[in-house]
Amino acid sequence: MTRPHRVCVAAAASALVGSTLMVQELHAQDAPPSAWARAHDASSVTGSTFISWMGAWSPLRPIADVARGEVRAPMAPGVIDAPIPIAGAFMLSGAPGSLARDFTVVPGAARNFGELRFQRTQERGDFHRPLDMVEGSASQLSGGGWAPVGLRGMAMGRFVVDQENNDVSAFTQRVSAGFSAPFVVTDSVRPPMQRTRARLEGALGLQLGGFGIGVSGGLDSREHNSIDFPLRRSGRWATPSVMLGAERVLPGRLRVGGYYRWSEPTETNVLSATPLTTVLYPIQGLDEAPGILVSGTPVFVRHDRRATAVGGTLEFPLLGAAVVVTHERADRADDQYYQITSRVRPTDAWRMNGSETRVQLARAFGAGTRAMLVGHALAFDGEGRRNDLTGLAVRGRDAQQAVELDVRQRWNTWQTAVVVGITNRAFRREDFVAELASTLEVRTPFVSAEVARKLEATSVALGASYATRAPVGELPRTDRGLNYRRLQGPELAYDAAQSSAFAGWLSARHTVRGHTLFAQLRGEQASSQAAVPPSLQPVGDRSRLSVSVGYRP
Which of 29, 59, 508, 518 is 20 to 30 A away from residue 170, measured at CA? Predict the structure, then answer.
């Protein structure tokens, strides 16, 4: 069996036993700053060593959503942790019709790659929002790779299995409370929680003459339960997703294509307040959350999503650079149900639609220098309705723009990489019930740098990254009700606070007879730089520590 076939078989076998190429961030509010607009993970604890450019292709990345992020430092460029960044519509936005040809036409692109990785992480600190986990730790096994299939195909697969333990959880049992929808159910306790996840995704692309066709799909499954606490929280999350695409090669090395995305995440949660009672707080926009006493009878909460997107791709050469442009239109429907026995009419409904554009330019300068510019712009409008009211309850708009430049240099035994960029996120909500509005714009410049040295069979890398937030905007007055000051107010104040995050890491890689072992130690800390008067802002610091080891055949 040849080496390409061995890599492909290994990736497929990994998928069968549990199935991501590296640590993923897929569905959460804590995505580090990046212009790749990659997928977000519900577990910030397990997002410490991921390479930004390797996650944008995921079919499981959210549709028509903008995550409201925690303060994070950028990820490492990955000088010795990953192959060089690959240009093309597949890596930029997941268009599967471009998969096979992207790995053929990009100079220096690795045609075979595979790895297994184990990671242990933990985080704690007071600088967080009310609906974030207070402190926790996680163990994670991930793996995957890509390899040719025959002469005209390319396959990619990845998996992640992890278990997270939160010693002190959030005021909600939801897997992630950082989506754009302004409706979420919370309660008055933060019991210890355990979360488990299994995630599998893959893609296959083929070249058929001047055409390219492809398909990608994924499934993310999670369970979460309270531990040793006189009140039971339990829930399940399931996210299936499929993406179809095709492209056509035209004269002049011009490539045009299109794709379709579909996803239907579903989450169910049960709150059983026995023998301890609790109070349920349904957050519905900026209105004061009512308190509902829960005792004896369990409360069932369900959250359904239906999301689709249609996109187009364009690739062409320009002055020695490869230029890629993708654009998609997306729609999402969120329905939340609670305190009912049948899903006849949702308690809260949120509808969002808009568009997203991504741009990529990649160019090599000689044999040792490569530069890549990546940017995106997206904007989505939303409307929310409540079944206890007639008419529109909440209206909002989320927009984000980002750009980053990645420059890598290699000479002799040395390698360096610098990533510098800025993100700008605008967030507006109008609550017609509370007669309040919130407008916030957050600019986050960031930089990440890494230097590596190869010493015979061993390579060592040292790096650091930094991000700072400069928010401007207008928040509702703070002389609101007690629940607003406990839940919505501190979250808005957190986003509106000047803050920064710093990270540093040390990586090592050793190769013996064609087999590679690698390890990384990373630490990160975030803190506020100035308070928002009158202050509802969380204070203190937030620290994260991660240790990972891995193997590549």
Answer: 59
This prediction's pTM: 0.89
Cβ contact 33:469 at 8 Å: no
Rounded CA gap, 310 and 354, in Å? 11
For 62-192, list the strands marked E by DSSP.
Answer: 113-125, 135-149, 153-168, 183-187
Instruction: Determine the pLDDT at residue 174.
Output: 84
Looking at residue 136, its pLDDT comes to 86
CA distance 188 to 282: 11
* Paired sense of beta strands 292-294 and 278-284, if any: antiparallel
Distance separating alpha carbons of residues 473 and 428, to the nearest angstrom: 9
Element (DSSP H or E) covering residue 492: helix 488-496
pLDDT for residue 340: 56
Supply the pLDDT for residue 62.
85
Three-state DSSP state, 409: strand
Q: Is 365 exposed, middle or buried (0-12, 13-18, 19+ CB in 10 A)?
A: exposed
Q: What is the pLDDT of residue 92?
A: 93
Positions of the chain with pLDDT lower than 70, given as ranges: 1-30, 38-50, 105-110, 339-343, 531-534
Q: What is the pLDDT of residue 111?
A: 76
Separation between Cα atoms, residue 356 and residue 376, nearest integer Å: 7
Contacts 24+ apart (CB under 8 A), 512-517: 512/457, 514/553, 515/551, 515/552, 515/553, 516/551, 516/552, 516/553, 517/549, 517/550, 517/551
Q: What is the pLDDT of residue 530?
A: 73
36: Cβ contacts below 8 Å, ≥ 6 apart: 52, 53, 55, 56, 92, 374, 376, 404
d(CA 9, CA 251): 36
Measure the CA angle with vertex 386, ends 294 and 307; round to 5°.
105
- Report helix, strand and coil shares of the chain as percent, to nearest 5: 10, 55, 35
| Token pair recorded at residue 187 | 């309660």
Within 8 A by CB and 6+ apart from 525, the residues are 125, 501, 502, 503, 541, 542, 543, 544
Residue 354: Cβ-neighbour burial (10 angstroms; 0-12, 13-18, 19+): buried
Alpha-carbon distances of 395 from 30, 179, 291, 352, 487, rounded to whole Å: 24, 15, 24, 10, 20
Angle at 506 between CA 164 and CA 403, to 5 degrees: 80
| CB contact set of 515 (below 8 Å; sequence gap of 6+) | 551, 552, 553
* Residue 13, pLDDT score: 36
Give ∠ CA 437-439-444 in degrees, rounded to 5.
160
Surface-to-core class of residue 207, CB atoms within 10 Å of its CB (0-12 exposed, 13-18 middle, 19+ buried): buried
Q: Phi, psi (5° rounding) for residue 92? A: -75, -45
Is the CB of residue 85 less than 8 Å from the CB of residue 102?
no
CB 543 within 8 A of CB 525: yes
What are the tokens at 265?
Answer: 């995440």
